[in-house]
Design goal:
This protein has helices at about 1-20, 40-55, 80-90, 100-110; strands spanning about 25-30, 30-35, 65, 70-75, 75-80, 95-100, 115-120, 130-135. By secondary structure, the protein is an alpha+beta fold. The chain has one domain (about 1-135): 2-Layer Sandwich (Alpha-Beta Plaits). It has a 4-stranded mixed beta sheet with strand order 3-6-8-7, sandwiched between helices. A two-stranded antiparallel sheet has the order 1-2. The longest helix is centred in the N-terminal third of the chain and has 19 residues, at about 1-20.
Length: about 150
Amino acid sequence: MLAAIIREKFKNTAEQETQNHDGKVVQYSGDGVLCVFKSSVEAINAAVSIQIQMQQEPKVPLRIGINTGDIIFEENNIYGDGVNIASRIESFAVAGSVFISGRVHDDIKNQNDIQTVSLGRFKLKNVAIPVELFAISNGGLIVPPPNR
């Protein structure tokens, strides 16, 4: 019963906040969701809002990874470096956090209302060059220690 409530909370919140921030839910996969946004700033604002809501009871242990890059839509398949790297970043994240790639950080580094902490460079599966990861450190989010 609690699992169903948690899934419904996550789905409803993800859909609402994605819509609120000019984005689109493009695919659900198990307990995950792939969303696209018109800007990195909107993606981060949606992610922060979602994470803060997931910290309220019933808590949902959610990890979020954000990247920018090519996404290819082909019939019922969605793939490309943008998706692959975002998925890899999410796997490094911890519950309650929002991790972003260095490419996304370049897009948002001049935004005064988005704070970040560099976590270091990481080798991601099927990615040739190590990627610098950043944690969004706005209030209410979990930020693990660097180079964990």
